[in-house]
User: Fold this.
Amino acid sequence: MSRTAKGTLLIDLEEFVWKKSISSLKIKSLYSIKGFKVCIASGDIAAENEVLIDFIPLENAKNPIKIENLPLGKNRVISVIPFDSFMNEVDFLTLRAVYDIVSETNTFVVNKKTTAWGNLIFRLIKSNSLKNINSPDKETESDLQILRGLVTDSIHPLLFDVSGLFGSYTAYSFGAKEDYLLKTGSYTFDWLLCKDFTVIVNDPISEAKTFTEEGKVTLPEIAPGIWILSIFDKEGNLLDKAKITIKSGKDSKTGHFSHDGIALLFPENAEISCKDKSQLLCKKKNVLYSNLSYNIYDFTNRNELSFSVNFSTGKAKEYSIKGKGVFLLDEEGNLTALTPQSKRVDLEDFPLTALNYASCFYDNEKSREVLMLFNPEYWNYTNEIQDVSADFNGSINDFSEFDGGNYPFIKDSKSGIWYAVIDYDNLRQTNQSGQPTFRLNVNDKDIEIGKMMCAKKSESGVNLEGYIYVKYNSLTPMDYKFPLIIFNRQNPEYIRKRFESEKNYKVPADFNFSKIEDIKILTNFRLCPASKNLFRSYHPIYSDKLFFESDPYRMTYLAYLGEKFQIKSDINISDDTELKTAPVDLFEISSGKIKKNVTDYLPAYYKENVKNILFLKKEAPEFGYIQCYTSSDSEAFAKAIGKIVRFINHNPGPYQIHCAIGTDRTGIVCAILEGLCGASWKEICNDYCASFYMGILEYRGEGCVKYAVEQCAEIKDVYLESNLQEKLITNISKKGNVSRKEILTMVSRLKGE
Assistant:
């Protein structure tokens, strides 16, 4: 490849040398940028050749930076990655832009406005999803045009949902532009240790906020993500800090903010005697908590404290505290932790010896908890460890840190093992594997994903150690590599077999077209459980997977089934807002030949019989792919179901319901409709998972639909629920602007009563 082109890269320093409106304390403490690394990437540039400049000191970047020998080509992604004073990459401040380098002289500006598009294209290149990015063909050009129309440059790139649009592209099922916009969140907590303090979150969007009184603190307009929240006194000294998780448009709340040591609030009528006051910083009166006045002792860097208390009433009592945080001793002598505490356990109580502490987790079914582990010796981790934590994934498309919780670990004094105890309830949302997935962080850095050890031996002795779920798209493994939590009650061979089967891409020869059951598998067409006239399927008139060899057959046989079962009403829950078709190839059943490029494909049965169509996206714009999996408890989701209920009640059956491929949106909506009709959970689950057998490299585990149904029904475990139908009816009618009577009428119509 020619590397003779020359270009000039202009870095917008306003993005790094912060505006005067940002407090100097935030600049000094959190954004001490020392320099940059500049990288260029594209589909035809090997990773080892990507770095153009290893380090540019900040003081040298006051003028435009000249970069020579830029490789010619289209859609080059320029990344400007800042480093802090410890020479760590500050990932969330990385700026990107996409340019065509086509001549000897090129001038670029890389700033906040160019970054959302740059992040998306960078992601697609790294996942190998855009193979023709450097020399686009017509299909790639079309894809880029669609994607470009959905990217918003006018907002901060942290408020653009790159993962969501990336997932839509891999599924080729796009939402509206507003579907990919995130909202800022807020964080509310209590602070009782001093007055006149300033709170800073190290996201680029929020501003420092100063408070003059102790009590409840709310920080608004924080970017979604996992951030460091820091508290400073009026002299600028750091008092405390901790990780916080912010979700789009949500207010995250906790009790008292975590504390680096022990802070003890006690009533004024009590006198405390401590065996060791060497680390006692202050004793202060008139701290208000729940409208009562307390004194406070502050023990910094202590995680154990023994003391006795004498009350004016003559009572005396001995106390012992283990763990950091803020603790309240009330008038009655009760000791309560105000700070959320990591649960402490004795590792010797767990049968971990046989695993030599090499696993990352242990499933304790009795207590319904998972013990997460990090053994530095096993990992050959020799650096000093300041903190260990685990991030849990909750995204159906990708590992987005802010979709799951972040859990700090405790160090076991006997073994040196770091651990955290996580409730089952906090592991309910899964990724598309259907299993909870996690990422270990040591000193705020991810452990290399390829070395994740999920030690789990089955009864047959098959060792799943190192088992990682890898997502496939088209015929290429993606960069989704998820270490899984596999529970004791689950069959690991079954899970492995299902995942391996995802690579079982099916061609027409894999189907016997003389068998109606094979035709139904090919088309994803089947009758929904508990109904007599609700059929679900692949999109009946729009081929979403033209690049698959099986699609001409799929589209042809969808028309055959639509006519066979006399479909009269179409419930379209894809992104369609009007009837559309696309040039497709069709398989002619009579001749056994392929008819090329049918320009306006609309089956005869559809023209003649389907007189009623619900375009759900038009009626409920907020309804979408991600919302089905993550927000099935929302009013917007319930109102979308309500639209379907009314459509069925006012139009004749049989009904055909579909999205693009009939897997995700169709899968979740059908699960809810089937539940409303009284289908059992086993029937619902089997129906959802059956879409996988089409053989188009799409896999969704049971956990995906389980979480969505539980959220919609507001229950914790569908296996323990005795009346799922009633819970769903109650919640849909309460939130969905649809009456119980209307829902029951729909149920009667679908059952043919």
Remarks:
- The CA atoms of residues 389 and 647 lie 48 Å apart.
